[in-house]
């Protein structure tokens, strides 16, 4: 255990180098992409490269080929969340060639272990497919929900869920010119309506999320930290 400023990052070079000599790989896990990038591309990464080891960087914006190269390196710098999502992606693959984690787990160093295993550990990693609904559904749902009154929806405070009342359903069917909102062909629109209801009447900007440069950033409900690279599971 070392205090801030006593050289944890530099000290970690010794066990990382020793355990990477076997060729089985070492994962150095950080809490955010800034730290991972700084170490992989900075002086610490240069030390490993000087010693003859390859250094990989695993961040959200890497494509599949870049991730494969990074995972094959002797030293891999990554955030804990990206490792978790890569594990989930591997379990969704149908082709062995697309797997990222082909090596057996050998050795890992966790920077800020309390943050990774306790604070971040309470936030589940949920992955969904990348299919996008028509932007028209989102716009139509937004226009509809903006005009709702309290009698049109009911909120369950305990589960933080919201549903349309019978009056709200009738209003939706009239607004969208349909006979049955819950018909199977309307499932995408209904999903967008439910998301719009949550956004307007349950979630609060600058409390549950932030908006920076047209990007929605999730705020961890336990720690108040911004969860960079995360998305809401329901779209």
Automatic annotation (TrEMBL):
For this chain, one GO molecular function annotation is: ATP binding
**Domain Helicase ATP-binding: from-to ranges:** 1-128
Q: Which GO terms describe its biological process?
A: intracellular protein transport; protein import; protein targeting; protein transport by the Sec complex
Which terms in the GO cellular component ontology are assigned?
cell envelope Sec protein transport complex; cytosol; plasma membrane
Task: Please name the SUPFAM superfamilies in this protein's record.
Answer: P-loop containing nucleoside triphosphate hydrolases, Pre-protein crosslinking domain of SecA
Domain SecA family profile residue range list? 1-235
Q: Which domain of life does the protein's organism represent?
A: Bacteria
Q: Which UniProt keywords apply?
A: Cell membrane, Membrane, Protein transport, Translocation, Transport
Asked if the Swiss-Prot or TrEMBL record annotates the protein with the keyword DNA repair, the reply is no
Protein known as: SecA protein
């Amino acid at each position: 255990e070392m205090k801030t400023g006593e050289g944890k990052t530099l000290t970690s070079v010794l066990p990382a180098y020793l355990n990477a000599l076997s060729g089985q790989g070492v994962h150095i896990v950080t809490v955010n992409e800034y730290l991972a990038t700084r170490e992989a591309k900075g002086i610490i990464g240069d030390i490993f490269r000087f010693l003859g080891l390859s250094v990989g960087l695993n961040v959200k914006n890497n494509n599949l080929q870049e991730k494969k190269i990074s995972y094959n390196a002797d030293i891999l710098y990554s955030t804990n969340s990206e490792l978790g999502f890569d594990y989930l992606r591997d379990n969704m693959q149908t082709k062995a060639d697309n797997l990222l984690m082909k090596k057996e787990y050998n050795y890992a160093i966790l920077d800020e272990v309390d943050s990774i295993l306790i604070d971040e550990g309470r936030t589940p990693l949920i992955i969904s497919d990348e299919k996008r609904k028509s932007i028209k559904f989102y716009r139509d749902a937004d226009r509809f929900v903006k005009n709702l009154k309290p009698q049109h929806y009911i909120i369950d405070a305990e589960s933080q869920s919201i549903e349309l009342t019978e009056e709200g359903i009738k209003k939706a069917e009239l607004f969208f010119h349909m006979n049955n909102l819950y018909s199977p062909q309307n499932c995408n629109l209904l999903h967008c309506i439910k998301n719009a209801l949550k956004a307007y009447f349950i979630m609060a900007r600058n409390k549950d999320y932030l908006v920076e440069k047209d990007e929605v950033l999730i705020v961890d409900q336990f720690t108040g930290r911004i969860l960079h690279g995360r998305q809401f599971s329901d779209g």
